[in-house]
Specification:
The chain has nine helices and 41 strands. The protein is α+β, with helices and mostly antiparallel strands. The chain is globular and about 100 Å long. The model has no long low-confidence stretch (mean pLDDT 94).
């Protein structure tokens, strides 16, 4: 019976491989699966005939498969394992006495069994040896050491007290670097949880799918300040985590919003006001219903003198007003007494979208001081009450930075909707889409613009806050800007002029955009880049060779000519996908060591254009707000992760890393796979395969970096010099936020992380704010 069952299994696998293998060949892919099918079918037929030759044939199958695997991927365990996940165990099964000794006429002839099985024993042994070698071979980590700081290294720009955290990136320079050095590689593993606070704000029925905890708290004096996805503002005692006050802006629920989150608050000290005056210290919170609210930092009461009874209406002068289609999820910049804010629009619903205008308000009165409209960039005086801003312009949904000494605010911009078709874009849109713009803080006038993607057809918004750091170059100290991007380039620019500090070259890009559109002939590539290599058949993955074959069918059926392959009705593979190599979490920059700590991630997507016949039909979304329908455009777009039929990524791991690079040279000194599949696998096994991270890193002067954004639920600490993981602490939910650190009133360096989960990633939801410190 065992022989018959083995034969049937062989034949079934062979038939599946034959059908799938033929499809792969027809699409121009590898012949491997078809050849493997022949081996399985022949083995199955010989097993049914009870011929010992089945063992010989299957040994050839195993040896051929191993040779091909080693040729394609070498001793890469996570690539080798799926290629042998059925082949090797089945070979071992055929060696069992209840199979091998039932073949031929001499059913119980040990010598005959041994002779016919020797080649198969050899093949099984080779697979085993290859597996052992692959397990001990590190195929992906690039281990090295960052150089030590210069003898006279530039210091951090820091008007913020060392023990505090006054802005999303600690200061408006957005470096996410703390000068505290209590924690170091020698003691950080001793960190223990000091307190945990639960906000009580959990995901609610009817919330958008992307309801997320992404907040980085502020620490001012002896208080922590944070916001929650539904825009509650909470003040905590920084030593104990006890609640001091909370404010609920009563934001109405709406399924129309694409995002339900709050990344943080902004802080302003009115130095002209006397001590003790209400709202001398104030917090600014943008809400999901498009208000900008000012609160007294001491009491949580509304600052009535700001705007209209404490709030500014961000819908003012907006075209195409529809509830839920414009809001700000990111904290504004506060610089020179101005609150500077942009906003997000829903992606790809309609060509008629609100404006991407950037506005500056007086931090005390809420008066509109200037507005920079990407569709009308030269007119920055406040708009008249009866006028509207330009519609559907590139918007600023992420976090901006400011250099008050230079008088410039640096704004990362996204794309004009629709993201994947650009046949209707204006001259100004082509100039500002997916760019960084430097605006005069006082007037809003444009000082320079640097575009990171030309004619963006892939939703490659500049997603993260630019980090400002002074870099020591051969020509002297250069005030620089470090900008991570979704496509994997980290641009290092002179923040006075926008000119590259590290070289940027234009490279030819694939052509052939959809009807009515065109593709840019070249795209800019930075000398400091984490661009993924162009995918090949050998890079495709699966838990077994069956779902790997399905990924081959999908891959060869898509249009793919490398990064920047235009979207198509055929379906285009976009790698990296719009999740990005980097996203809103950005990078952390050490201004003393002149290095950048980053978290590259690699997840391809597919982009398929669907011709629209009219604006009444829906093609990809039956529910509000009809994301990706692109009403008014020639095409809707279907966006999907590039995964196998069982939901695993179609590209091999690692999918996520941590990396350390020298900003003076652009050289990456180390790059290590990061994170496990413990919280993504059907069985919670902590395989360190390297998983994506969403949520930024944080650096300290003690030479330790922290990160909590991986898809497994941990806060991790790393040695900045080598990238080595030093310790990790289990979180109760997904940690898709950026950690921060401060000094408590008893002198302990605290590390705080938010564990609330992320709707789009499917990580566990929660509402925990957790503080860690060394034991007393």
């Amino acid at each position: 019976m065992a022989v018959v069952i083995s034969a049937v299994l062989c034949i079934v696998l062979g038939l599946a491989l034959a059908v799938g293998g033929w499809k792969v060949i027809a699409l121009g892919g590898t012949w491997y699966f078809a050849i493997l099918a022949v081996g399985f079918l022949l083995t199955g037929g010989l097993l049914l005939a009870r011929r010992r030759a089945a063992l010989w044939v299957y040994s050839l199958v195993m040896l051929g498969a191993l040779g091909w695997a080693l040729y394609e991927v070498g001793f890469d365990w996570w690539q080798l394992a799926p290629r042998g996940s059925i082949i090797a165990p089945f070979g071992l099964w055929l060696l069992m006495p209840w199979v091998a000794q039932r073949l031929g006429w001499q059913h119980f002839g040990a010598r005959a069994w041994g002779g016919s099985a020797i080649p198969l024993m050899f093949a099984v042994a080779l697979w085993g040896a290859a597996a052992v070698q692959a397990i001990v071979t590190d195929s992906h980590d690039f281990k090295g050491m960052l150089p030590p700081p210069l003898a006279q290294a530039p210091g951090a720009e820091d008007s913020v007290p060392d023990g505090e955290w006054h802005a999303y990136g600690r200061t408006q320079h957005g470096t996410r670097y703390s000068p505290l050095d209590q924690l170091n590689p020698g003691n950080v593993a001793r960190l223990e949880k000091v307190w945990q606070f639960n906000t009580g704000d959990q995901r609610r029925p009817g919330d958008p799918e992307e309801t997320t905890y992404e907040v980085t708290p502020l620490k001012i004096d002896e208080t922590l300040y944070l916001c929650t996805p539904h825009n509650l503002v909470i003040a905590l005692d920084a030593e104990t985590g006890q609640e001091r006050w909370r404010f609920d802006p009563q934001v109405p629920q709406s399924i129309n919003r694409q995002h339900q989150t709050c990344r943080g608050l902004s802080y302003h000290l009115d130095e002209a006001a006397p001590d003790g005056q209400k709202c001398r210290q104030r917090l600014f919170m943008p809400t999901a219903d498009a208000r900008l609210i000012a609160l007294d930092a001491d009491t949580g009461e509304v600052c009535e003198g700001f705007g209209d009874e404490g709030a500014v209406n961000l819908w003012a002068n907006m075209p195409h007003q529809k509830e839920g289609f414009y809001y700000s999820t990111s904290p504004p910049v506060v610089a020179r007494g101005r609150v500077i804010i942009g906003g997000a629009v829903n992606d790809n619903v309609s060509v008629n979208a609100p404006s991407g205008v950037i506005r500056a308000y007086d931090a005390v009165s809420g008066e509109l001081l200037w507005n920079w409209d990407p569709g009308n960039p030269d007119q920055t005086e406040p708009i008249a009450e009866d006028e509207t801003y330009s519609e559907s312009t590139p918007n600023n949904w992420s976090i901006s930075s400011a250099d008050e000494a230079l008088g410039l605010v640096y704004v990362p911009l996204g794309n004009q909707v629709p993201d994947q078709w650009g046949g209707n874009r204006s001259e100004n849109t082509e100039r500002f889409s997916s760019s960084i713009v430097a605006l005069d803080i006082d007037t809003g006038q444009l000082r320079w613009v640097f575009q990171t993607v030309h004619h963006d057809l892939w939703d490659m918004d500049v997603p993260a806050q630019p980090s400002l750091v002074d870099i020591d170059t051969e020509g002297g100290l250069v005030p620089a800007l470090v900008a991570p991007t979704k496509q994997g380039d980290i641009y290092v620019l002179d923040r006075r002029t926008g000119e590259p500090v590290l070289p940027v070259r234009e490279v030819p890009a694939p052509q052939g955009a959809a009807e009515g559109d065109e593709a840019a002939p070249t795209q800019p590539v930075s000398a400091l880049t984490y661009e993924p290599p162009e995918l090949e058949d050998k890079d495709l993955w699966g838990a077994t060779f069956i779902d790997q074959m399905m990924c081959h069918i999908a891959f060869n059926g898509l249009r793919y000519e490398g990064r920047y392959t235009p979207p198509s009705t055929q379906g285009t593979l976009v790698h990296p996908g719009n999740f990005g190599v980097f996203n809103w979490g950005g990078v952390a920059v050490d201004p003393v060591r002149q290095m950048v700590f980053s978290t590259p991630a690699y997840l391809p997507f597919t982009s398929t254009l669907i011709p629209r016949e009219n604006d009444e039909a829906t093609y990809v979304s039956d529910s509000e707000p009809h994301l990706n329908e692109n009403f008014g455009a020639p095409f809707a777009v279907e966006l999907q992760p590039f995964v196998s039929p069982i939901g695993l990524p179609c590209i091999a791991p690692p999918w996520g890393y941590v990396a350390g690079a020298d900003l003076r040279t652009g050289r990456t000194h180390w790059m290590r796979k990061n994170g496990t599949v413990r919280d993504r696998a059907p069985v919670p096994l902590p395989f360190k395969m390297g998983v994506p991270s969403l949520g930024g890193p944080m650096l300290t002067a003690g030479g330790v970096a922290f990160l909590s954004g991986t898809l497994d639920y941990y806060l991790r600490a790393y040695d900045v010099t080598t990238g080595k993981e030093l310790a990790k602490w289990r979180l109760p939910a997904g940690g898709q936020a950026t950690p921060m650190t401060y000094l408590s009133r008893t002198g302990r360096q605290m590390v705080v992380v938010v564990a609330g989960g992320h709707g789009s990633l499917g990580t566990k939801t929660g509402d925990a704010i957790i503080a860690y410190a060394l034991p007393r």
